[in-house]
Structure formats: structure tokens, C-alpha cells
């Protein structure tokens, strides 16, 4: 995953929506009666739930001893303070809390807790967000010297030209959503660069979806008859959410962890080993479930 450069092609939203907070804790959307996946292991309980009722001092001791995810050095580099995009950005969000909270959301959704024995958070040491005048929306890359240092390049032109169509009340959520998507690329595994790009982008938007940062134009079940499962972005994100609800909370974490331990992605073996079926079959069942929604398929 170290040297990949992932470019986002986030569609321009067209409809206004109600304001959303800039960074909010993700909400679990797991189905009440999930189908257990072959080989799935019951995950250990949060250490936070242990020692209940043992008094405040004991709880404080416990907090001190609970492993925590390493927090990366976060940097913001603004290459043009007078750019209209810069003024929009700085006027809308507190970059310090936005990035810090977004990192915690990504770590929690992809790795659950630092004590989780079934996941392995990569050793990302720093993330530098660079606001600059460029084409496109945003992309993430490893630094030339050390891939544990990530750079997120975010287009001031995009912020300046696109954001005016976004209601001011939605601006923080839009900026936070894009940066959360890019932060996933700083923390996800990709089978040493061999995972399908659509899966990588789908996981990034799945995290955004579960942070309640869904743009108004996203619609569950907007699938054309020949769409592949790895079309990417929100299309694959909603498929992953379906798998999460069907096979149980933690399914996407298992997929991500599978991409860590897989040296070279091979579709059949990867999905059958994780979920007991080939991905095309699962996709067909998802499409069937969406059609069964009878037009109610918005999430
Ligand atoms: Zn991306």
C-alpha cells in the first residue's frame, strides 16, 4: 500500500440537504440477526466494558492501561492563503479537530480498538494535508522518502468552484467527508497493491457512510444491470454495508485485514475464504435484495 496514489473522483452533488456535523461518531448499522460467516471469530469485548462497578479509581487505572491507537503527526500545508478555496476551507472547519477526529473514526471503524487481536493498524506516522491549486478533487500518496508518512492533496480550485453549490450548512460535512475518505487511504490495506481499485475506493466510502457523512446524492440501490461489484465509491460502499449487515458487525474489518495478510489478491480464494461464497454470487444476492426493496432503497 505504501506507494500507491489514489485519486478521488467524487461526483458533484446536485441537491441541497440538511446540515450534518463535521465529524461525528459512527453509528453501528449492523443487522439484528446477522448470518455468521465461515471462519468468523467472536471478537473480544472492549476492555472498556471490563471492570464495571469497581469504582472510579480503578476505572482511571484501567483507562491509563488501555492500549490506544498511535496518533499520527497531523500537518496542514496551505500553499495559497489568498485563494478563494482557502478562505472557504478555513471559514468552515477547524482543521485541528476535523483531522484528529477523522483519524480516530477511521481507526475505530477499520481496526475497532488497539487491543483487538484480529486487526492490525498500519504504522502511519504522519499525515500532511496539502491545500493547493490543482485539478480533480483530492488524492493520497506516500511520501517519497518513507511510505509511513502520507500526503493528502486537496484541490483549492475544487473547494472554490464546487463548494458554492453546497449549502453553507453542509460545508463542514462535505469537507470532512472528503478528508475522511482520503484518510482511509492512509490506513487501509490493499493486498500489496493487488486489490481491486473499486474495493479500495468502496472501503473508503464505506467508512464515510458509517461516519454519517454521506453526501445527499448517494443512494443505496442505484445499480445498473451490468454494474460490477467493484464499480467503487458509494456503489461498492453500499454493497459492503450489505455484507456488514448480513454477515455481522466487523465484516468489513475482516475484509480489510484479509487484504493485509494477502500477498496477491485472487478473487475466488479471497472471498470464499472470508465469506464462504464468490463475490459475484454475493453481489447478485445484494442486487436481488435491493430490487426487493421495492423502490425504498435509500439509506
Ligand atoms: Zn479514494
Automatic annotation (TrEMBL):
Basic and acidic residues: bias regions: 55-74
UniProt protein name: WGS project CABT00000000 data, contig 2.2
Record lineage: Eukaryota, Fungi, Dikarya, Ascomycota, Pezizomycotina
A Pfam family it matches: BSP
Origin species: Sordaria macrospora (strain ATCC MYA-333 / DSM 997 / K(L3346) / K-hell)
Composition skew (Polar residues), residue ranges: 1-10
Composition-biased stretches (Low complexity): 11-32
Region of interest (Disordered), residue spans: 1-74
Amino acid at each position: 500500500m505504501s506507494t500507491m496514489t489514489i485519486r478521488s473522483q467524487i461526483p458533484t452533488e446536485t441537491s441541497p440537504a440538511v446540515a450534518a456535523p463535521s465529524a461525528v461518531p459512527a453509528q453501528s448499522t449492523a443487522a439484528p440477526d446477522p448470518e455468521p460467516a465461515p471462519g468468523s471469530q467472536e471478537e473480544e469485548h472492549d476492555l472498556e466494558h471490563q471492570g464495571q462497578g469497581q469504582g472510579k479509581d480503578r476505572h482511571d487505572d484501567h483507562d491509563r492501561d488501555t492500549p490506544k491507537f498511535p496518533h499520527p503527526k497531523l500537518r496542514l500545508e496551505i500553499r495559497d492563503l489568498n485563494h478563494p478555496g482557502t478562505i472557504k476551507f478555513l471559514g468552515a472547519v477547524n482543521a485541528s479537530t476535523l483531522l484528529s477526529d477523522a483519524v480516530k473514526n477511521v481507526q475505530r471503524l477499520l481496526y475497532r480498538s488497539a487491543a483487538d487481536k484480529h486487526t492490525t493498524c498500519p504504522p502511519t506516522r504522519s499525515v500532511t494535508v496539502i491545500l493547493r491549486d490543482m485539478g480533480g478533487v483530492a488524492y493520497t500518496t506516500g511520501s517519497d522518502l518513507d511510505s509511513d508518512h502520507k500526503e493528502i492533496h486537496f484541490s483549492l480550485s475544487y473547494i472554490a468552484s464546487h463548494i458554492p453549490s453546497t449549502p453553507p450548512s453542509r460545508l463542514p460535512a462535505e469537507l470532512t467527508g472528503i478528508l475522511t475518505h482520503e484518510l482511509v487511504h492512509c490506513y487501509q490495506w490493499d493486498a500489496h497493491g493487488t486489490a481491486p481499485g473499486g474495493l479500495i475506493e468502496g472501503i473508503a466510502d464505506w467508512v464515510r457512510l458509517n461516519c454519517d457523512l454521506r453526501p445527499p446524492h448517494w443512494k443505496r440501490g442505484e445499480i445498473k444491470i451490468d454494474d460490477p461489484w467493484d464499480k467503487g465509491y458509494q456503489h461498492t460502499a453500499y454493497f459492503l454495508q450489505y455484507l456488514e449487515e448480513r454477515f455481522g458487525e466487523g465484516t468489513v474489518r475482516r475484509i480489510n485485514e484479509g487484504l493485509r495478510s494477502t500477498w496477491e489478491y485472487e478473487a475466488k480464494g479471497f472471498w470464499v475464504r472470508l465469506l464462504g461464497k464468490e463475490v459475484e454470487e454475493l453481489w447478485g444476492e445484494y442486487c436481488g435484495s435491493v430490487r426487493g426493496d421495492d423502490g425504498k432503497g435509500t439509506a
